[in-house]
Amino acid sequence: MSAWFCVVAYDHNGAYVRTYANQIEAAREIGATYSTIVTVLDSPHKTVRGLRLRKYKKGTEILGRINPAERAVIAYKPDGTFYRKYRNRDVAAKEMGVSPQAISNAINGRQKTASGMQWRKYEGDEQMPRKINPVPPPQPSTYDKVEGFQ
User: Beta strands of the chain (E only): which ranges?
Assistant: First the structure.
């Protein structure tokens, strides 16, 4: 049984090193456990044995160099409808009047929105959803429920 994606290794500067047929081969050749490879593939900022790993659908073009700051991002309105795709988070931040870190925080789940928008990273090899789950309305705080407290 073959995997639907291959694993590609890049060095610390983002230069292409090697392509592995699957996670098992990558683990064997790199000298790491299978679970470590899976964990690293689920997080674009982690490395294993000095290598950054990415997964690509088989048959798609493999990048010769990566730079996480150059990854495209997608903005969605609070109701979950598609707003716009940006070339990278810095371009989006400048246009939306918010810091690049705020967009990263929204993408990584540390906050729900940035500049009133929901954000997702765009990998380029996947279908971009036109609608996502809306942001739930804010819940009243417990301080609002205390009588006589103003």
Answer: 5-10, 16-20, 47-48, 51-57, 73-76, 82-86, 118-121
Tokens standing for 140?
């009243």
Q: At what angle do helices 100-107 and 89-96 cross, to 10 degrees?
A: 120
Burial of residue 23, with CB atoms counted within 10 A of its CB: 0-12 exposed, 13-18 middle, 19 or more buried: buried
State whether 77 and 100 are in the same domain. Answer: yes
Q: What is the pLDDT of residues 80-116, one digit of tens each?
A: 888 998 878 888 999 999 998 999 899 888 998 999 9
Asked if residue 42 is part of any domain, the answer here is yes
3-state SS, residue 26? helix
72/84 Cα distance (integer angstroms): 11
**Within a 10 A sphere around the Cβ of 2, how many other Cβ atoms?**
8
Specify the 3-state DSSP secondary structure of 111.
coil
- Which helix (H) or strand (E) is 100 found in, with range? helix 100-107
Q: Which domain holds residue 73?
A: 68-121
Band (pLDDT 50/70/90 cuts) for residue 29 is: very high
